[in-house]
Specification:
Layout lengths: L1 H15 L1 H7 L16 E8 L3 H15 L4 E8 L6 H6 L7 E5 L6 H11 L4 E5 L4 E2 L3 H6 L7 E8 L10 H16 L9 E5 L13 H9 L4 E11 L3 H4 L2 H16 L1 H5 L3 H12 L3 H15 L5 H18 L9 H25 L9
Parallel strand pairs: 1-2, 1-4, 2-3, 6-8
Antiparallel strand pairs: 4-7, 5-8, 6-7
Helix pairs in contact: 1-13, 2-7, 10-15, 13-15, 14-15
């Protein structure tokens, strides 16, 4: 029991050391590059799927933001929506600067992204999802670092304050890590809902790729740097509402998919490989180790009252974590434990079905 506790504590501590390692050891990006002129021509690619309630406001916002550029286009690709989005978009076909495309069947995010890049006219691209709100002047800010030759992509930053004005410790921690990675010159993964990229740095994304944003980022890091713009804020729904079991399982399967493709990781520099493994993969062992500690407590309840109390307290916390009560969302510790439970279950699910039983899993975007 003590040995397991020490291993778990050491694993968590080692993961928490990651930002310190980034600060002390990793060499920052070069600041001596020549800067090109102001960027005045951009293509914004908006991905649409069953998001009718967001489209009107999002399109008006983007068109207004784009008006500060000399030349621009807003490319909207609908992935065979069934909620009335298609009808709404067809009514906007004649608006200036809008290019609207409709997939005849559900193709998935990579297909729509590749299509958007193919039909785009300009050398600077901005990818945008439909649901999230964006801060003002965000389009001009997000492309500004692309003037540096060494920068291949720029990521927006998901605000740790959500639409309901509630803060998220998990988002704040992730932003902290990404900020450190950005300063080190190797941001491991843009935030998918909003980022900019030079067209010359775009790699065609295979249709079966689940984590398109991570896949594209790793391809870019082969030759360019990726920067995080903390002043380009993405405001999303509450983290606990979004993070369900399906999303967790899909994310883990996407990480496994990238790990299996040796060509992606082999192209990275040693420093970037360490950052990828430490940030994305190392922490996946933490839920399993915590679960083993909990089981060990259950086995040890007969050895003393302190074990019984610890096991009982852990059981109560787990129950509260998985109950779907909205009142529980205010407790950040409960959310953290709930997320670890989802990771554990999804990890075991994938391990049993794909490794032990060698079954394939079909996961749509």
């Amino acid at each position: 029991m003590i040995t397991l506790f020490i291993i778990t504590s050491s694993t968590i501590l080692l993961y928490l050391i990651y930002p310190l390692w980034l600060t002390v050891i990793v060499t920052g990006k070069s600041t001596n590059e020549k800067v090109s002129g102001e960027i005045n021509c951009v293509s914004v690619i908006l991905l649409s799927f069953n998001g009718k309630q967001y489209l009107d406001q999002k399109i008006d916002f983007l068109v207004n933001e784009l008006s500060c550029f000399d030349a621009y286009e807003l490319i909207i690709i609908d992935d065979n929506s069934k909620d009335g989005s298609v009808e709404l978009l067809k009514n906007l076909m004649n608006r200036d600067h809008l290019k609207i495309l409709f997939n005849s069947k559900r193709e998935g995010i990579p297909f729509s992204m590749n299509l958007g890049v193919t039909v785009s006219k300009y050398d600077y691209l901005i990818f945008c999802d439909q649901r999230q709100e964006l801060s003002c002047n965000i389009l001009k800010k997000i492309v500004e670092p692309l003037r540096y030759p060494g920068i291949g992509a720029v990521s927006g930053c998901i605000s740790y304050i959500d639409r309901e004005k509630k803060s998220s410790f998990l988002r704040k921690h992730e932003n902290f890590l990404k900020s450190k990675e950005s300063k080190a010159g190797s941001l491991i993964g843009v935030y998918g809902p909003f980022y900019a990229i030079k067209k010359q740095c775009y790699s065609i994304i295979p249709d079966n790729i689940i984590l398109d944003d991570l896949y594209l980022s790793l391809r870019i890091l082969k030759s360019k740097q990726i920067e995080l713009r903390k002043d380009c804020q993405i405001i999303d729904d509450n983290f606990s509402i979004l993070y369900d079991y399906h999303r967790t399982r899909r994310y883990l399967y996407g990480l496994l998919q990238i790990l299996k493709d040796g060509s992606i990781i082999n192209d990275l520099k040693f420093k970037q490989k360490v950052m990828l493994m430490w940030h994305k993969y190392f922490r996946l062992f933490i839920p399993s180790l915590i679960f083993l500690c909990y089981i060990s407590l259950g086995i040890s309840v007969s050895q003393g009252i302190e074990f019984s109390i610890a096991f009982g307290l852990g059981t109560v916390i787990i129950i509260f974590s998985i109950l779907p009560f909205k009142t529980m969302l205010k407790f950040k510790l409960i959310n953290l434990i709930r997320m670890n439970i989802l990771y554990l279950i999804a990890f075991l699910d994938i391990l049993i079905n794909n490794v032990l039983l060698n079954h394939s899993v079909n996961i749509r975007n």
